[in-house]
Write a structure and sequence with these properties.
20% of the residues lie in helices and 37% in strands. With 251 residues, the chain is an alpha+beta fold. The strands form two sheets. Strands 3, 4, 5, 7, 8, 9, 10 and 13 form an eight-stranded mixed sheet that branches. Strands 1, 2, 6, 11, 12 and 14 form a six-stranded mixed sheet that branches. The relative contact order is 0.18.
């Protein structure tokens, strides 16, 4: 073998060796965003806690022991964040929903408080096991005696004695449902704040005092303290539902 042939043979062997040793570059799979939606009850600029006493605009005192909201269709147009949600402040804190998604798709957000007519009167055992509308998840947010869901539960105690002593002697209870109480909220310019690696959170603030003490639409819990959304209770039920909707704002 002449010198030139030997030279080219060594180059070929070297190239083959490099090819053999070379490893494929790793494929980088982007990590999807984890999006968390929260509803944060607020009182006087601070986070509200269960059983915290509120002084009404009329001077008496009360507190919430339970705030629950069942809703549907958290979305931005055709981009769906979740087809259902259950907010249960006493049991689960402020969380509404945690899903995988892209925050860019949800710069705006709408959501229903309540369940649309067709779903409201359907068999509650039919929705997927992961749905808030499945009876195993909705639980006491379905009437049972009536073919439909309870959209909102507000329960607590009120002090009717006005004697300066913590004598919360009276219960209030509002179970708001039925088709006329269905509502939709819409928010533009949603703020998604980083809460970890590829994790983002947005808050909707619920100003609890506005539910019963909205100026011009006050509810005196010493007099009007119960509704199961019956026909003769609809004026009061609509008033409270409207107050609730107007008390929710994006952060």
């Amino acid at each position: 073998m002449n010198r030139i042939s030997a030279f080219y043979l060594l180059i070929a062997i070297g190239l083959a060796s490099c090819k053999k040793d070379k490893k494929d570059d790793p494929i980088i799979v982007p990590v999807p965003d984890q999006l968390e939606a929260h509803m944060v009850p607020k009182l006087d600029g601070q986070n509200y806690i269960v059983d915290q006493i509120i002084t009404s605009s009329q001077g008496y005192r009360y507190y919430f022991s339970e705030i629950k909201i069942l809703g549907t269709d958290m979305a931005n147009g055709s981009s769906v964040l979740s087809d259902s949600y259950l907010f249960s402040f006493q049991q689960n804190g402020t969380g509404i929903k945690s899903v995988v998604g892209n925050k860019i798709d949800f710069s705006n957000l709408s959501l229903n408080i309540g369940v649309p007519n067709a779903l409201n009167h359907a068999d509650p055992s039919v929705p997927a096991s992961t749905s808030a509308l499945n009876i195993s998840n909705a639980g006491d947010m379905h009437w049972g005696w009536n073919p439909g869901y309870i959209f909102v539960k507000l329960e607590g105690k009120v002090d009717t004695t006005d004697n300066g002593i913590d004598d919360f002697d009276h219960n209030f209870l509002f179970h708001l449902g039925m088709d006329p109480l269905f509502r939709t909220l819409s928010f533009n310019g949603i703020n998604w704040s980083a809460s970890g690696v590829s994790k983002y959170r947005t808050n909707l603030n619920l100003f609890v005092k506005e539910i019963f003490d909205k100026s011009g639409d006050e509810v005196d819990l010493r007099v009007d303290y119960i509704s199961h959304s019956l026909n003769n209770q609809m004026v009061l039920s609509n008033k409270i539902m409207d107050n609730l909707v107007n008390s929710i704002e994006k952060e």
